[in-house]
Sequence to fold (570 residues):
Amino acid sequence: MKMPKMILAVIEQREGKIKKSALEVASTAAKLASTCGCGVAAVVPAASVEGVEEIAKCGVGKITVLADPGFVNYSTSGYAKAIVEFAKNAGADTLILSGTALGKDLAPAAAAGLDAAIVSDAIVLEDVNGELTAVRPVFAGKALQKVVAKSANKVFTLRPNVFPVVESPVAASVETVSVAGADLTTVATEIKKAGGKLDVAEANIIVSGGRGLKESGNFHMVEELAEVLGAAVGASRAVVDAGWRPHSEQVGQTGKTVTPTLYIACGISGAIQHLAGMASSKYIVAINKDKDAPIFNVADYGIVGDVFEVLPALKEELKKVI
Amino acid sequence: MKIAVCVSNVPDTATKIKIAAGGKEIDKAGVSFIVNPYDEFAIEEAVRTKEKFGGETVVISVGEDSNKEIMRKALAMGIDSGVLLKTADPLDSNAVATLLADEIKSGGYDIVFMGKQSVDYDSSVVGQLTAAKAGLNCVTVCVSLNIENGTITAEREIEGGREVIKSALPAVITAQKGLNDPRYPNLKGIMDAKRKPLAEKPVSAPAPLVEVVEMSLPAPKAAGRIVGTDASAVAELVRLLREEAKVI
Fold:
């Protein structure tokens, strides 16, 4: 069987709330099920969760909460086993997850339990001549791979922020099933938030800084611009390696690959490793005093100028309109 | 403690990727290969784990003779010996994980380190797949690790912070940048590495489960617009972002 018999959307919640990326998964699963003429359902591993009707608004009505008090935080072993068992019983042969920190950890564990091929980080997932075909960036986006899974069961993860959330409401039928003997061998016991900062992987707008800022103490200019825009702060590898910024902010081949709506690169020359991580942003603004900097090759809008003059002026101009 | 570290051979991150004739893989001509950057954190953690608990460390890699160069780097950083699972078969993540899991099971390892992803095909799945196939626990994307009496307390990076994970040996740990500061091999290490045992085991890989239909380069971006050359350009930039791009 090349085409799916039944698609299972695996829904991620954090602290009992459904993630936006999970609605991207539900919308994609609903669309594919309708194209392929197959069944579709959603599972939510959770201790308790609110807002599951959001999933039905995206076109997946049959929703099962796989509940265990131990699922208040993420558990690789617990979530994977519960999902595998559910998929087997429901006859689901195609699983879709979001490629978040949780999804990237869970998807291969579930795939192993289902002897499924796993295709991660899809940016396109569609029916091509009766076979689900994915396109995924490789070499941090320097190339694209079009792939098909040859096994009976298949697991896909979708790159967050790429697939649309589509409103196509259906009636919700929500069932909560207690997981018998949840396996909490590997389990999160605590979440340490980094000061409530917005993460580059989840942000719509990113303001990134590089060597052009000259020293760590000047990075506040990037942070202030980000604050005005409600944006996340990103950094080039050079400034992370220099210890100015934490690795969690690094964008590029050995950092995070990001696809925000707007990426503002400040004093970043655009080494090939950095471009790989951000070139697929929808709009790119570059501010750099070197007119030959490679960042201008991917920028939609550029200012060839001194970041120390342009950033404060840009911040003030934005304050007028936002 | 019996400690393994799995390493892969990837094109230097500064490589400009070209597609080979046939359109399914990259053109390797002129490409220099390096140890996968995330594997360096895994190697360092393996060496430190031995320094703390004693035992032995083994570097494992799947592929051809060319992988020996990166395995020697691991030996130079302090790993005791190496096993090359030698095959010229086409490999996908499932095949690599199957071969690694067989070797890990037969070797009776307590802990297995590897990078959180290889920076070539970027799948980030081999850690979990290997653990599942070998019947081990797994913690991915670790930025801190503590082992006490067989209990693992690790921190993994998640959106906007970290989560603290409890698990138990035997386990696979995948390393994120920040887990440690990898040492540079010194001259003595490099000389010693030449004499350390590096065994070859011929293996045959299971057929790939994921088939590559096509590989291509992303469409080049249309040339952008230089809005200005100093701070006076910001008003026009903000106007474009609002009215043309409609992103703010």
